[in-house]
Amino acid sequence: MKTFDKPIQVATKIEMGADRLVIFAGPCAAESNEILSETAAALKEIATKLDIDLVFKSSFDKANRTSLKSYRGPGLEKGLQMLDAIKSQYDLPLITDIHIPEQAAEVASVVDVLQIPAFLCRQTDLLVAAAKTGRCVKVKRGQFMAPEDMQYAVTKVKESGNENVCLTERGASFGYHNLVVDMRALPTMRQFAPVVFDTTHSVQQPGGAGGSSGGQREFAPYLGRAAAAAGVDGFFVETHPDPSVAKSDGPNMVPLADMENFLSMLKESWELGKKYS
Predict the structure, then answer these.
(1) Among 73, 114, 135, 174, which is disulfide-ready with 180 (CB 3.0 to 4.6 Å)?
(2) Distance of CA 92 to the CA centre of its chain
(3) Rounded to an integer, what is the distance from CA 102 to the centroid of its chain?
(4) Which sequence ranges are marked TM in the entry (predicted)?
């Protein structure tokens, strides 16, 4: 199968779709300055040791939580201040989600990559607003979308004047509270843009924990290796110092203490997969 035409610029000095592995990683939600700082420091040390490109991730607002009572985050103003502090202290590029077009420009003033949540991947106004910031746009494939139909999201971004767009695979709905990853989706979507594999949301069980989402993090290494073999350009991994007390997506996040081994495994698998792809 053919692949995308050329690498994209993710952030200053970081390209994706060429010869280096890009990792998007961090806590699901921006819970506190302390958790963000602890996680960023550990991830930067690991990325330097493994010689991989790191983009730090956390969300100022989780707008699609299962329950109204679930923690959403610190909000736009405070959340951007928290992320900007991490960027300054650790010299790391940032990625975070946006949910409405009006957030795009303000978030882009701090963040390097704008992530479009899976549920919103068809929202034209959101994609266009993200594209017009000039920042890299990372679009997650909706659980309800055919892989080949993601070409239209890519086209919306590119026809709005922005060539730096990538796609993310995070599984498709398979019955209730379950996601399945179809590995055919990866080469299919790589025809249109570089592809990131979301190792942790792919093992999520949406709404499967009685008012919140469950997850099966023990399967993340298996799916990660499979995606590396199929051929991807980067990985998305949510992590937390103690997932058991995380305020969002704890059951599917990788414990921070395990991240060096996890990312080392992904890199080795990716290099082997690249050799044969």
Answers:
(1) 174
(2) 15
(3) 21
(4) none
